[in-house]
Amino acid sequence: MVVGLLVLGRKVIRSVGLKIVELTPSSALAAQATAAIIATISVLLGLPLSGMHVLVSAIIGSALARGTKISLSAVKQVMFGWIITFPASGIFAILLTEAALQLNLLNI
Asked: What span, in angstroms and rounded, lies between the C-alpha atoms of 16 and 51?
């Protein structure tokens, strides 16, 4: 999870920083540090979470702390994506597993 933040964090910050809110270097750093700390605490507690969700939330939190205008339409798009991701992933996993079972690709 932390590796994902390290690898994709810059892309997410750039994308979200342009679409949701205009980020300053200091607010981007604060968001990255916050996401890393939350991810580390989550791992230590054995709690699953999405690093990207945490990073985007930290970016929004940083913007709110600075009183910066946030694009609510962009936030709604991101949240819609989050809501759709969970059931879509589950359905896709079911379909792939069923296909693998039908093709005798799994030793179950």
From this structure: 14
- Unique residue bearing structure tokens 């991701």: 85
Q: What CA–CA distance (Å, rounded) separates 92 from 60?
A: 30
Between 34 and 105, the higher pLDDT residue: 34
DSSP letter string over 46-63?
Answer: T----HHHHHHHHHHHHH
Distance CA 98, CA 107 (A): 13
**Domain spans of the chain, in order of start:** 1-70, 72-108
Quick: pLDDT tens for 58-90.
Answer: 988 988 898 988 888 888 888 888 888 888 889
Distance from C-alpha of 101 to C-alpha of 81, rounded to nearest angstrom: 29
Question: What is the Cα–Cα distance from 102 to 21, expressed in whole angstroms?
Answer: 47
For residues 67-106, one letter each, b for 16 or more C-beta atoms within 10 angstroms of the residue's C-beta and e for the rest, the string is eeeebeebbeebeeeeeeeeeeeeeeeeeeeeeeeeeeee
